[in-house]
Amino acid sequence: MTRAEKAAFISSKLAELYPRTTIPLDHEDPYTLLVAVVLSAQCTDKKVNEITPLLFSKARTPREMVKLSVEEIQDIIRPCGLSPMKSKGIHGLSKILLEEHGGQVPESFAALEALPAVGHKTASVVMSQAFGVPAFPVDTHIHRLAWRWTLSTGKSVEHTEADLKQLFPEDSWNDLHLRIIYFGREYCPAKGHDPWKCPICSVVGRKELFR
Q1: Pair 98, 143 in one domain
Q2: What SS3 state is found at 144?
Q3: What distance in Å separates the CA atoms of residue 46 and residue 1, rounded to the nearest whole number?
Q4: CB atoms within 10 A of CB 56
């Protein structure tokens, strides 16, 4: 089976398993999504969704967020981990949104990636899920599965993103990256994975998985 054939099979199987896709981070608008994605770094979506209601009850706009001190933000988001860095990032990006973007989240990869605590993956999630711009955010699930399914060499997240963008149609990226994440959590975990029972690995999985 060629890579293109594998990609077609995977896309079809994932669409069958997950016909409807919604981002697992609770949010109301581009700003609350941006903050939630920043919080999700090295933290589960479930934990982020437990923390954001309290944070957003105090500040759900950049103008409200900068009225809080970094320490106040940190106290609220501490359970998410990396709270010193994330609290500074959320306060800092909120200030820049007010000073440079009229309090709005910019619809630009470059402008988003220039914000504190916002890397390419975070920018990609916001661009795809808030603004509908085709993007392929690669998290640990996608990076792992792309290697397992021989769609990429897995040398780096950037390499994996480039490989996947070549294999799948651009108009499928926004739904597909979420479907792969859902699949990784439900069927293809990092540990305790049985490739023989996996609906995709059992068909296109690397030989190393079956040893």
Answers
A1: no
A2: helix
A3: 37
A4: 20
**Dihedral-angle region of residue 119 (phi above 0 means left; psi in -120 to 50 means alpha; beta otherwise):** beta
Residue 89 has pLDDT above 90, yes or no: yes
Position 202 pLDDT exceeds 90 = yes
Active site residues: 121, 139
| Residue span of the structural domain in which 65 resides | 30-131
Name the CA radius of gyration of the chain, rounded: 18
**Model confidence, pTM:** 0.90
Count of the separate structural domains present in the chain: 2
- Measured in whole angstroms, the distance separating CA 96 from the mean position of its chain's CA atoms is 22
Q: What is the CATH number of the domain that holds 97?
A: 1.10.340.30
Residues in Cβ contact with 164 at an 8 Å cutoff, skipping those fewer than 6 apart = 136, 138, 142, 146, 151, 152, 173
